[in-house]
Fold this sequence. Notes:
With 436 residues, the chain is an alpha+beta fold.
Amino acid sequence: MLSIEKEFTFCKGDTIVIGCSAGPDSMALVDMLLKIREKYSLNLIVAHVNHNLRAQSVQEEEYLRNYCEKKKLMFECMMITEYGDDNFHNEARNIRYDFFEKVVYKYHACYLMTAHHGDDLVETILMRVTRGSNLNGYSGFKKVVEMDNYKIVRPLLRFTKQQLEDYDKCHHVMYYVDDSNVKDKYTRNRYRKYVLPFLKEEDPNIHLKYLKFSMVLSEANQFIEHERDKALKKVIYNNLLNIEVFKELDYFIQKEVLYYMMNDFYQDDLILINDKHIELLLNLIYSNRANAFVNLPNEVIATKTYQQLELKKITTEITAYEVELSKYVLLPNHHVIEQVEDVVGIGNNTCRLLSSEISLPLIVRTRRFGDRISIKGNGTKKIKDIFIDSKVKLNERDLWPVVVDSKGVVVWLPGLKKSKYDKKKAEKYDIILRYS
Length: 436
């Protein structure tokens, strides 16, 4: 007889959100919790995500809704209406856990429980070993994960899928089977159908061996993370990696720092990210190029700018603009160029022009290939070279304003360089511009 009480310490009055798909594993979990509900005065909420990919999904949702009403369980449900990610499983997982977290906060729950079992853990470890990962990835997933204000608990890791299906049969628990779980096109299914049976032939309790393996790696990883966290304080500030300091770290810790940075974008999905991506980042960091980038999965880009590395999500932000400069222009880089009556200072954030020497109107635009600016007494200089000399980040250059006249002559590079058309305060001028 399977007993969930041996797998987790319950307290009187615990509020628990149960992630439930209506499959055999999650229905067994719900039933086990129902059997001890009165004993511990548990507040149970069933949270279900309708993935909206199969006709059967509607039946599963309706069944769960009726089941919860009959068992006097709170029921929360959401339907996914569209998918935009190339990696379906990754996106669906993120949507599920975002929804589960909202339900947790709605009911002020202590725990989110999911029905991951021993077979799931074996499959996850095997996939991550095959793809390459770090210790955290190789350990699969933890039984208990500390979140900000609650814990994710997986109390069924000592049980196999077959044991849970036998439980359902013994206790007359109805469940639905997702046909996609047997299709060979999904990586996990291939491990489930072909690799796991072989391991079980060698040892029917192989899942317990893998559970121990996972726990050992998790303990080792705790020590590594402690060392990594000390390094993070030295190398990361405002989400920017200091490359010069980073290069002084031990190679193993370097990789852990990079996994940590990627975790912000991929959470616990280390199936999507592997050691090949770490290699890409290290090659970028150690390259001789001052400005370069690499693309990572799910529209994440890693950008190297001189001695800094930044990871960020690619967005559809404006990368080019052209506007006529009148009295005031708010720029996409959140700066302003305005025409003023007077200004204090002579730095590159101000510009004085004589309208008779240029062709009005003035235009503010982004850089173009071949842009040059005429410097007083020094010929011309490429805008690209000014960006390099001033160490302007690669991702900032596309939005940096260039002020030209109506004939396309560059008269000012705000904040960086003045042209030969700029006037000293003692000279004659009738236009004053300020960049702030």
